[in-house]
Amino acid sequence: MRSTTLFTLAASSVSFAVGISGPEFHQLIPREAQLKADDPLPGPRRGSFDPVPPEQTEEEKSRAGEIKDMFKTAWDGYFKYAFPRDELRPANNSFLNEYNGWALTLVDALDTAALMGFDDLVSTSLDYIPSINYSRDSTDKVCSLFETNIRHLGGLLAAHELFTGPLANLATNKSEQVAALLTQAQAVADTLKFGFDTPTGIPQNNLYINNRSTDNSTDNNIAQVGTLVLEWTRLSDKLGKDEYGKLAQKGEQYILKPQPSSGEPYPGLVGIEINITTGRFTRGLGGWVGGVDSFYEYLMKMWIYDQDRFSFYKDRWVTAVESSIKYLESHPSSRPDLTFLALHNETRIVGYSQHLACFDGGNWILGGLALKEPRYVDFGLQLVDGCAAIYNETETGLGPNIFRWDPVGTPPEATKVPANQTSFYRRAGFWIAQPGYGLGPEVVESFYHAWRATGDKKYQELIWGAFQSIREFTKVGSGYSTIEDVNGKVGSGYGNYQPSFFLAETLKYMWLAFTPQSPVHVSGVEGPESQQWVFNTEAHPVKVFKPRDGGRRPKRDVLEG
């Protein structure tokens, strides 16, 4: 999941960690190595497990079983101590109710439970979901349009896809409850759609459900605007009503056609914030980081979803990727073998990234396969290796929320390495700017895509190592918790928070990596036509649009460039 919340912290952390702010970020020295079109792909390159998947090995079966056990522990803790509230506080067996009180974890985790074959959990969830009142917020707190979209709307749509498709057998004799999933998805959208009632159609993100008001923000970030279009378009296509897709697509056009020019400091790369009233960009700070990230992610995924309607989205993704290779590719001064994507503040570059940004390798691999462009797959694998390093070099084997580096060529007098991390930086190639770990999926998500594209078992081993670290260092009380320091002593601090996306995403990607015969997978075969599913940013599988399969495409209403 691409949470935009962390970037709010991250933006201020940049200034703190670097010691300067805004336009004073130091300029990156031009990169040394250019990726060439004829560079060979590293490692094995074959189609993944399509069209006939291999048998699951005994080792894969054993590992998938242990991941399944972890999911069951996390679910049982939630269901015993938190349900029907939103999320579990495992250390003291209590709960958080920050997402409207709509049983978030149950909805978010349902498709993972279904894929893993938990019939009883599926039955319980299907019985409960029709009773959720999506028109009222029991917490009376601010509602995030973005988070509710990717978790609730995405989760309901995915469950409906599965139980009317490859997992229909799990919902035998529950046809009414399955139908209610789509009814409830529409109810979520109907509740949230007042957020789009702005002069431009760029939505307000912070909503108050009970009185249908907003916090009157002047700006919204790009991820929160650009990570709605998949779910709302899919809802329109399933219902045959174009209003939902049109709402999300209208605001998107202001990102696809950015104004003023400072909002697009490099071709295809945009700033983090846009004015809700004027549609003009207000900040040139950006990159493949929280607050912008899933906007780029959805450009490619929308084209995979429907190449006819969303060809311009694909063009914008390609432009962003080419600019990223040209301007954002960065190598740490102490480990030039590692590749990261840097942050940009207008045209100034800084060696800064986040665990959240480590989805980038997987997205590039996905796009490269879809476009039959091996350069993108190759570069994506380099990014995957870079993010593997942020796990491999810490005491816990888990990556920090925020990490920094001095790009190759940084003068000694301009170094930003903290004095107490000099030796660590020399060995690891990054230093830790925010040491927490949030149980997020991004690194294992990219490992999963790398495995699907190459068939190389080393990526399964990386996922297994991450699983073992989570089991050793995050287990507490009735579940699993965020931790405060990935490089600290064991037990140095728990955040006492088990986020719903741990079950929806992190454990799903892990389990899929050891279950090649799952009916739902991202294809590793080249060409967009090979993809049967596209995962939303919360890892909820959405069926790729195919009119012949009963999808109903509303009239063309998408910006065509």
From TrEMBL:
Q: SUPFAM superfamilies under this entry?
A: Seven-hairpin glycosidases (SSF48225)
> In the record, which residues are listed under signal peptide?
1-19
Annotated Pfam families: Glyco_hydro_47
Q: What keywords would UniProt list here?
A: Disulfide bond, Glycoprotein, Glycosidase, Hydrolase, Signal
Q: Which cofactor does it need?
A: Ca(2+)
Name its pathway.
Protein modification; protein glycosylation
Q: Name one GO molecular function term.
A: hydrolase activity
> Gene3D superfamilies, alphabetically?
1.50.10.10
Write down the EC number. 3.2.1.-
Q: Give the source's domain of life in one word.
A: Eukaryota
Query: Which chemical reaction does it catalyze?
Result: N(4)-(alpha-D-Man-(1->2)-alpha-D-Man-(1->2)-alpha-D-Man-(1->3)-[alpha-D-Man-(1->3)-[alpha-D-Man-(1->2)-alpha-D-Man-(1->6)]-alpha-D-Man-(1->6)]-beta-D-Man-(1->4)-beta-D-GlcNAc-(1->4)-beta-D-GlcNAc)-L-asparaginyl-[protein] (N-glucan mannose isomer 8A1,2,3B1,3) + 3 H2O = N(4)-(alpha-D-Man-(1->3)-[alpha-D-Man-(1->3)-[alpha-D-Man-(1->6)]-alpha-D-Man-(1->6)]-beta-D-Man-(1->4)-beta-D-GlcNAc-(1->4)-beta-D-GlcNAc)-L-asparaginyl-[protein] (N-glucan mannose isomer 5A1,2) + 3 beta-D-mannose; N(4)-(alpha-D-Man-(1->2)-alpha-D-Man-(1->2)-alpha-D-Man-(1->3)-[alpha-D-Man-(1->2)-alpha-D-Man-(1->3)-[alpha-D-Man-(1->2)-alpha-D-Man-(1->6)]-alpha-D-Man-(1->6)]-beta-D-Man-(1->4)-beta-D-GlcNAc-(1->4)-beta-D-GlcNAc)-L-asparaginyl-[protein] (N-glucan mannose isomer 9A1,2,3B1,2,3) + 4 H2O = N(4)-(alpha-D-Man-(1->3)-[alpha-D-Man-(1->3)-[alpha-D-Man-(1->6)]-alpha-D-Man-(1->6)]-beta-D-Man-(1->4)-beta-D-GlcNAc-(1->4)-beta-D-GlcNAc)-L-asparaginyl-[protein] (N-glucan mannose isomer 5A1,2) + 4 beta-D-mannose
**Which residues lie within the region annotated Disordered?**
36-64
> Hey, which family's this protein in?
Belongs to the glycosyl hydrolase 47 family.
Name the chain's protein: alpha-1,2-Mannosidase
